[in-house]
Design a protein that fits this description.
β3 and β4 form a beta hairpin. It is built from eight helices and ten strands. It is of the alpha+beta class. The strands form two sheets. It has a five-stranded mixed β-sheet with strand order 2-1-10-5-6. Strands 3, 4, 7, 8 and 9 form a five-stranded antiparallel β-sheet that branches. The chain has one domain: Sulfite Oxidase, Chain A, domain 2 (Alpha-Beta Complex). It starts with a helix and ends in a 9-residue tail after the last helix. It binds ligand MTE and molybdenum atom (MO). The ligand Nc1nc2c(c(=O)[nH]1)N[C@H]1C(S)=C(S)[C@@H](COP(=O)(O)O)O[C@H]1N2 binds next to β5. Pfam families: Oxidored_molyb. It comes from Devosia limi DSM 17137. This is Molybdopterin oxidoreductase.
């Protein structure tokens, strides 16, 4: 796989250099990035699409992320980002140990469905020991247990035109004068139906703790840490990501991170 990494870095390096050259051509260029028909923005967006296509071709649809042996779990999963959400809805659920929690699947589906924690725990289960890589430069090997997302999506019946899952979370990752910004993320349907993509309720053979996303957090094992949404409450099937947040498919993507976020 090292050849793949080198290729990807080289590719990213080239596109980043090209884009920054354009941006530096005039500082006021930044002001125009918000305009949909702006040239610089179009180039940046194309680079993102190209990255996605290049990665998809290199990785393939169903390649599995590496799984590790129990002896390779050397420490607990380091909590990062939100670790104890303070929204009223979340605190209410936490105080009753998530008894009334429900995960909802809506949008471009045949029927909107929602499941309690007990229902999710009684669906087909899978455990996997994988490595979580955060862009901040740390990794953790941990055992995640949960139910495959694909089975849950099938119970809702994904409509043919749907292209993405948007993952809505409870936590206010950022508080601003105009209100809370809630964490969200998204993936394509290939990642959603990948066999290692699970709605996780267990971590290292214990109940998933609040600091790591209780009661449910998604694992997309071939993607970086910011593509692993914690405190998940709703999965929305859509054909367009632009209506959400600032339109880039996730909280961190809205701030400039790559949408695909593959490893
Ligand atoms: N809802 C939510 N999900 C999130 C985050 C967050 O702040 N809120 N942070 C992301 C980032 S950057 C990382 S590295 C991982 C951290 O997961 P952990 O706390 O289980 O290690 O969660 C990701 N998912
Ligand atoms: Mo991260």
């Amino acid at each position: 796989m090292s050849g793949f990494n080198i290729n990807r870095r080289q590719f990213l390096g080239v596109s980043a250099t090209a884009a920054s050259g354009l941006v530096l051509a005039g500082c006021d260029q930044f002001d125009f990035l918000g305009q949909r028909d702006n040239q610089v923005r179009a180039v940046l967006e194309q680079a993102n699409v190209l990255t996605y296509q290049v990665q998809r071709r290199l990785i393939g649809a169903q390649t599995l992320a590496r799984e590790y042996a129990p002896s390779e779990i050397r420490q607990g999963q380091r909590p990062n980002g939100s670790t104890d959400p303070t929204t009223a809805e979340y605190m209410f659920l936490k105080n009753q140990n998530f008894a009334d929690y429900r995960l909802t699947v809506k949008g471009m589906v045949e029927r909107e469905v929602s499941f309690s924690l007990d229902e999710l725990r009684n669906m087909p289960a899978r455990s996997q020991i994988t490595r979580h890589d955060c862009v901040e430069g740390w990794s953790c090997i941990a055992k995640w247990s949960g139910t495959p997302l694909g089975g849950v999506l099938d119970q809702a019946g994904v409509k043919p035109g749907a292209r993405f899952c948007v993952y809505h979370c409870y936590d206010n990752i950022q508080r601003t004068l105009t209100g809370d910004i809630l964490y969200y993320s998204s993936s394509d349907l290939i990642d959603a139906y990948h066999p290692q993509t699970i709605l996780s309720y267990g971590l290292n053979d214990a109940v998933l703790p609040v600091s790591n996303g209780a009661p449910i957090r998604l694992r997309i094992e071939r993607a970086l840490g910011y593509k692993q949404p914690k405190y998940l409450h709703t999965i929305e099937l859509v054909d367009d990501l632009t209506p959400f947040g600032r339109g880039k498919g996730g909280y961190w993507e809205d701030l400039g991170y790559d949408w695909y976020g593959g490893i």
